[in-house]
Amino acid sequence: MKNALSIRAANVTLFITMALVLVVGSVIQMWSFTWGLIATEVVLIMLPALIALRINRVPVLQGLRLKSLGLLPVLLCLGMGAALYLLDF
């Protein structure tokens, strides 16, 4: 079993994703900006990547290189996010 997509498969997936974002994403975002952004990110960006991994029989965790972070980085990110949120006011 492969651990990553080939360069060609990754480039084809990127081309399809960018075409979908430019054509469909702009129309959805004109309809509703907030829901359009969510739909663009979830449906038009994440879904083609997951489909490409599935077609090429690459495990999702290895193909997307998802790993657990640990407690310290998570706490640091939450702390920085809270501090920046307070600076926004």
List key phrases describing it:
about 90 residues, mainly alpha, 4 helices, about 80% helix, about 0% strand, flat
Architecture blueprint of SSEs:
Elements: H1 7-31, H2 33-55, H3 60-63, H4 71-87
Helix pairs in contact: 1-2
**CA(first)-CA(last) distance:** 50 Å
Main sheet record? none
Can you count the beta strands?
0
| Number of contiguous helices | 4
* Order of secondary-structure elements: HHHH
Low-confidence stretches: none
Radius of gyration in whole Å, from Cα?
17 Å
Q: Which percent range describes the beta-strand content?
A: under 5%
Structural class: mainly alpha
The 3D shape can be described as flat
What percentage of residues falls in helices of 4 or more residues?
A: over 70%
Instruction: Report the mean per-residue pLDDT as an integer.
Output: 90
Care to describe what's here?
With 89 residues, the chain is mainly alpha-helical. It has helices spanning 7-31, 33-55, 60-63, 71-87. Helix 1 runs antiparallel to helix 2. The longest helix has 25 residues, at 7-31. The radius of gyration is 17 Å and the shape is flat. The termini are far apart.
